[in-house]
Structures are given as C-alpha cells and as structure tokens.
Design goal:
- A 5-stranded parallel sheet has the order 2-1-3-4-5, with helices on both faces.
- Helix 1 (2-10) packs parallel to helix 8, helix 5 crosses helix 6 (121-127) and helix 8 (164-174) crosses helix 9.
- The chain is an alpha/beta fold.
- The protein has one domain: Glucose-6-phosphate isomerase like protein, domain 1 (Rossmann fold, 3-Layer(aba) Sandwich).
- The chain has helices at 2-10, 31-43, 47-52, 66-73, 93-113, 121-127, 135-141, 164-174, 176-195, 203-217, and strands at residues 23-27, 57-61, 81-86, 128-131, 148-149.
C-alpha cells in the first residue's frame, strides 16, 4: 500500500492516458468514508501535510443522489483521477451503485477517445482500486488483485480509519510519511489507555466515564444530534 501510494504520487503509476493521477475519489458509506474524511479535514491544518498535498485533490462520494456524483466530479479530469472503493464485503448497496456509476463514467469517457479499443477493462484497471476483503468480487468488478488492499476481518467500519480504509486515500493525498505520524499518534493514545493505571489521568477512561455520567446519571439521551437527510425519503405532506 505504501509503495502503491508513493508510485502514484511520483508518477510511476499513471492513468490510462498517461496523465498524473493528481485526484483521488473515495467511494464508501458510513465509517468507510466518515473516518477518512474526518482525518483528511484535520490534516489540512498540519503544515507538512498541507505542503505534501499541494496540487492534489481528495473528495468523497457516499450518497447515491446523482447530484452528489456531479459535485464529487466537478473540476476533476477523470484521466487524472484514481478511484478508491472502500467496501469490506464489496456488496454494500449504496457503495456498489456509486462504484458502477463511476466505472461506467470511465468507460464512456475513454470509449469516445479510443473507439477501436476492444478491451474496455483496461480503462477501469488504470483508474480504480479497492480496499476490501472480497477478492473474487473485486476481480469480477474489473480491479486487479494487486490493486486491492485488504484489512483484518474484525475491523468494523467505524473503527477502520487506521486500516487501509483510511491509510490508502490519505497516503495518496498527503503522502505516507504524514499518515504514519497520524498512526503513531493513534498508537500513543492506545498505549496511554493501557499503561495509565491512575484513572483520574487516563483520558479515554475519563471520556467514557463522562459519557456514562451524562447518559445514566443526568439522563441526557444524546451526546450529539446529527441531522441527516436521505434524498429518496418522502415525508407526508402535512410535515
């Protein structure tokens, strides 16, 4: 994964037309994009990361609304774009719908430029990779095995940002060295949790206790209220 991201960034790995892959589009839903997007936003304030990302763009596509696809691709040259499909099982309905939409977009684009090209799978192979544990389905989709990056089956989506789910797209954008600093920071928190026997100084334990106190002692039913709109959901007229 480190080698692949660095080869993309240096230009050793390029798009089908030979252009540098300066843009990264991440397709996922839930933890498969929220974690990476959170870290992406956080690292924007880090000087080294910001400098390493100069000239590059990273966007996320989660909703199946066609407008979201248009927004994600706005200003992107598909010939300069690498698509990362984040799906552990490679069966999540929303993610796969978006993945098929982008795959069709890639094929349509290059088919117009190369109408005599019989093997359109070459277009897909040059511009799509995946983070998944389902090699049979990624291969069937048109992604080469060497461009599929796995992770442990016990990692749930909401905890996956420190796995290839987050590390691959973040490394493509910020460079692996800066992402390694992020991983080292996460490891230091784990070590702090395990090694700090005095709970009054153990930050993760204190956060858990504060949550318990607010929830069960104070009776607050929510830690946060996050408005969410589903495009296909129809409300009754009187609401």
């Amino acid at each position: 994964m480190r080698d692949f991201s660095e080869k993309v960034r240096t230009g050793e790995v390029r798009g089908f037309s030979g252009k540098l892959l300066k843009n990264t589009l991440v397709i996922g839903i839930g933890g498969s994009y929220l974690g990476p997007e959170f870290v992406f936003e956080a690292l924007k304030t880090d000087d080294a990361s910001r400098k390493a990302a100069e000239g590059r763009k990273l966007r996320f596509l989660a909703n199946v609304d066609p407008i979201d696809f248009a927004r994600a691709m706005e200003g992107f040259d598909i010939e300069e774009t690498l698509v990362v499909i984040n799906s552990k099982t490679f069966t999540t309905a929303e993610t796969m719908l978006n993945a098929r939409t982008v795959r069709s977009f890639i094929i349509d684009h290059y088919s117009k430029l190369h109408p005599k090209e019989a093997d359109t799978s070459r277009f897909v192979e040059a511009h799509m990779c995946a983070v998944s544990t389902n090699l049979p389905d990624t291969k069937k989709f048109g992604i080469k095995d060497e461009r599929v990056f796995g992770f442990w089956d016990w990692v749930g989506g909401r905890y996956s940002v420190c796995s290839a789910v987050g590390v691959l797209p973040l490394s493509l954008h910020y460079g692996f060295a800066n992402v390694q600093d992020f991983l080292d920071g996460a490891k230091s928190v784990d070590e702090h949790l395990r090694s700090t026997a005095d709970y009054s100084k153990n930050v993760p334990v204190l956060l858990g206790l504060i949550g318990f106190y607010n929830n069960y002692i104070c009776g607050y039913g929510s830690r946060a209220i996050l408005p969410y709109c589903q495009a296909l959901l129809k409300f009754p007229a009187h609401i």
